[in-house]
Amino acid sequence: MQFMSFFMVAFMTSIVGLAPQTSADDKGYRVRWVGEQRLVVREGDLSGRIDLETLSKLPHLYAVGPVEGLKGEVTIFDGLPFITHVDNKNVAVDRSFRHKACFLVYAQVDRWQQVLVPESVKTASELEQFVWRAAFERLDVSKPFPFLVKGKPARVQFHVVNKTDDLPHNPEQHEKVKIRFELKDRSVEIVGFGSDKHEGVFTHHGSKSHMHVKTSDGTIGGHVDGLELKGGMTLFLPKLD
Fold first, then answer.
1. Of the candidates 57, 62, 180, which has an alpha carbon nearest to the alpha carbon of residue 110?
2. Helix (H, G, I), strand (E, B) or coil at 104
3. How many CA atoms lie less than 13 Å away from 30 in the CB half-sphere?
4. How many structural domains are present in the chain?
5. Could you tell me the residue range of the domain that residue 74 belongs to?
6. Which residues pair with 67 in a beta bridge?
7. Cα dihedral sign, 201-161-146-52
8. pLDDT per residue as tens digits for the range 87-99
9. What's the pTM value of the predicted model, to 2 decimals?
10. What CA–CA distance (Å, rounded) separates 80 from 95?
């Protein structure tokens, strides 16, 4: 029986995506991830690596990733799912956990510390740089970390993946399935994950963060592509014990 139990555990954890990988333990949070972005984009593996319902009981959960089959975007804010997909060229929102994700990065955070974003920060790239400077002073940035940004930017450019064909997936096809949208002067909430060691896992090539956005009223949102900020933004980082 002991041998069989060991065999089953080894077998299950050897299957990519079934066993979440995790950062080292921290006092205020721990970042976990399942699957890898490069398997989706470069190898065309669009299978569901994690059933979101298995996470539905976790308190104060935050998560981002694409829906199985690239049929939308997974975003979870404080335990509340915000699953977006494209319906008749518009963004539609589903608030259930009845979905799977191709890859997912997630963490539980019950306490946050606030940092005012300077008005000099205007773009997504500048915001990423500021997030890292602020995190360096307050967290251990050798490990992945979650963050939030709230406020009313002048403009948010974002996309929702919407694969509708059976063509083999590759980087060129990946760009084609992105349906792009824009928000102007809307109050938004952004959830992101930062790491300089997980490019191709849960951050994109050339980036140290992965960010999703939703309007504060929860009616629209997706994967952040670009930002035009005008001040009045607040960064939230995990508050350590």
1. 62
2. strand
3. 10
4. 1
5. 21-238
6. 101
7. negative
8. 999 999 999 999 9
9. 0.90
10. 7
**CB-CB contact of 26 with 143 (8 Å):** yes
Give the pLDDT of residue 170.
95
* Parts of the chain with a pLDDT under 50: 1-17
State the CB neighbour count (10 A cutoff) for residue 71: 20
In this structure, the chain runs to a length of: 241
Is 66 among the domain residues? yes
Domain CATH number, residue 198: 3.30.1330.80
Q: Is 95 in contact with 82 (CB distance < 8 Å)? A: yes
Query: Rounded to a whole number, what is the distance in angstroms from the first to the last CA of the chain?
Result: 41
Q: Which of 1, 4, 61, 8 is nearest to 32 (CA)?
A: 61
Three-class SS of residue 37? helix
Predicted local confidence at residue 11, as pLDDT: 40
With respect to residue 100, please indicate whether it lies within any of the assigned structural domains: yes
CA-based Rg of the chain, rounded to a whole angstrom? Answer: 18
